[in-house]
Amino acid sequence: MMYRAALPTLLLLGTSTAQPAGAQPLSTDEVQRVETVLAETGAEDAPGVAVGIVRGGEVVLERYVGLADLSHSIPLGPETRVNIASNAKQFVALMVLDLAERGEVDLDADFRTYLPDAMPGIGEAITVKNLLTHTSGIRDVYDLWALTGITWYNNRLRNREAMELLNRQTALNFAPGDEYLYSNSNYILLAEMIAEVTDERFDEYAREFFARLGMESTGWKRTNGSIVPDLARAYGNWNGWREDPAIANLFGDGFLYTTLPDRLEWERQLQGSPSPLARALIGRSQQRPDETLPGDYGFGLEIGEYRGLPEVSHVGSTGGYNAHLRRFPDQNLAVVVMGNTTEIGVVALGRALSDALLEDVYPSASAYPTEPETLLARPANSDVTGRFVTASGSIIRIVEREGELFRELDGRDPARLVHERGNLFEYETVPGLKIAFDRTEAGERRFRIYYPGQPVSSGLPLPPPPEDPGEKRAIEGRYINAETDTEIVIAFKDGDAFAMTKNGREREAAMISPNLLAWNNYRFRFQRSEDGAVEALLVDNNRIRSVRFDPVDAR
To answer: Tell me, what DSSP letter sits at residue 47?
Structure first.
């Protein structure tokens, strides 16, 4: 296992070298805890991660593990540039805030005040704040591409193609300001808005902006074929290492290439080191633009808590590139992780590193309950099995196998539910993750999920599909969505199985409730008239909701 030596000026062992006021070098105990975490991370002959910690305005750890390029055995180092994916959003938001502070953008104005040709089919006002906070209701362009059958990372997609698709939309996921739902489209639109307001190419304006911040090695690629110096290649492991095939190049939502030293320089400025930006602007960038809007999203950042401490964070993932940022404002601490492989969990690594430094600081009491206040009698297995839907729309199945209960969820391995006591069970696969079965005040079956540091979530049962095959055949037919030129054909097979053919490719969907089919993350909902005829097929998938398909020859 290889660890690149940190720069000589960095304090890793709590030496007596003179430090600026407020600097807090790692103590011997902290170094040992951090080294224990890093000892389990990566290998010298595999893709890896760059890890940095800033505390008290100074870099106290800078570490590189693994290779940037497997073909030439080039190690990750201070010069290596990595795509930090959605960690880029904070910098796009910072540019918008900077323009707002200079009076060039009004955050409460409809964003089309500055981008007048955008999304002409949407009549509702969508403010710049709505874009910043993912409360716009605009559908995620990547999920729209998936609906059309386009695999985004295999195509040379740019903002131009994104705008063409977004400009065809005539409906939203929800009314602007009513809900929170993360959508990459918001930050693509913000990048386009910045270019329009500044009358510069976005990548050029961004390059100048980063230069102001002393981040000379940070920027977007001008075009798909642009050379990124010292680029870390991205990898996944599928029976051997394979390079990530992504060739898309969009601006705003991600695709920002940067080095660890550049990232740490910005963290230093956030913690009080000299900056070209006003302290008031920097402080505001770490808060929410509008507390009245739903969700916990700020200027390209998630604003919340972790184990009882205020935290500012974000996760980014684009193919093999992964990045994780954690800031603890009250402790003047930031942890930055950025890697070039899917095999290293940057979120788990970021948590482990912050835990190593804050274990003695976390409040002893959990901010959220970890089990029910009152335990009930153990229910019979037959009373808790079935399909349930959570508030986020996830379909969870509770099944019985040889007398034991299991949780099933599409895309996840089944998890055995180990009985703890009363109506409380613990996931065998995740210590501390518990599920309790009870009933609502109205007597409806329910489960509630508990996990330390997270709010309680719940699931309610879905009514079973109809038994009459005639009712199932009634939804057969061909459906068209004009916003994406997508065709879906539904055909009944047998039992609860249906053939779902999207743009010529057939998949097997399952009826999980009356008027509801499911395939992977897709949900197909059938809207009926008063006489029972199918009026529309409404499609949900991840970050797109109620995409309307009109029947062409439905029965």
So the answer is: B
Kindly state the DSSP code that residue 465 receives in the 8-state scheme.
P
**β-sheet bridge partners, residue 516:** 513, 525
Helix (H, G, I), strand (E, B) or coil at 517: strand
DSSP at 154: G
Q: 398: part of which helix (H) or strand (E)?
A: strand 395-401
Handedness of CA 337, 341, 346, 349 (dihedral sign): negative
CA–CA separation, 452 and 233 (whole Å): 36
Enter the tokens of residue 111: 């964003």
Q: Please state, in angstroms and as integers, the Cα–Cα distance from residue 530 to each residue in 527, 534, 548, following that order.
A: 10, 10, 18
Residue 477's SS3 state is strand
pLDDT score, position 554: 52
Residue 363 host element (H or E): none
186-223 pLDDT tens trace: 999 999 999 999 999 999 999 999 999 999 999 999 88
Give me the residue label for tokens 């049962």. Answer: 461
List pLDDT tens digits, range 435-492: 999 999 999 999 999 998 789 999 999 999 999 999 999 999 999 999 999 999 999 9
DSSP secondary structure string for all residues of 237-280: ESSSEEE-------SSSS-EEE-HHHHHHHHHHHTTS--SS-HH
Cα dihedral 514/519/525/526 (nearest 10): -70
Determine contact, residues 68/232, Cβ cutoff 8 Å. yes
Average pLDDT over residues 420-445: 96
| E strand or H helix at 434 | strand 434-439
If you average pLDDT over residues 159-173, what whole number do you get? Answer: 97
**436 within 8 A of 420, measured Cβ to Cβ:** no
Report residue 35 as tokens: 């080294």
| Banded pLDDT at 156 (limits 50, 70, 90) | confident
Secondary structure of residue 341 in the 3-state scheme: strand
Give the DSSP per-residue string, 108-136.
Answer: TSBGGGTSTTS-TT--S--BHHHHHTT-S
Q: Report the distance separating Cα 443 and Cα 448, nearest Å.
A: 15
Q: How far is CA 108 from CA 102, 113, 130, 192, in A?
A: 15, 10, 9, 18
CA 120 to chain centre: 28
- Tokens encoding 46: 């595999």
Query: What domains are there in the chain, each with its CATH number?
Result: 83-358 (3.40.710.10), 381-461 (2.40.128), 469-551 (2.40.128.50)
Q: Are 159 and 152 in contact (CB under 8 A)?
A: no
Q: For the range 504-508, what are the long-range contacts, defined as Cβ-Cβ under 8 Å and sequence gap of 24 or more?
A: 505/149
Tokens of 481: 């969505």
**Alpha carbons 199 and 319: distance in angstroms, whole number:** 32
**β-sheet bridge partners, residue 82:** 258
Q: Taking the CA of residue 137 as centre, how many other CA atoms within 13 Å lie in the half-sphere pointing to its CB?
A: 21
**Nearest Cα to Cα of residue 550 among 541, 533, 542, 499:** 533
Taking residue 7's Cβ as centre, other Cβ atoms within 10 Å add up to 11
Strand partners, 405: 400, 417
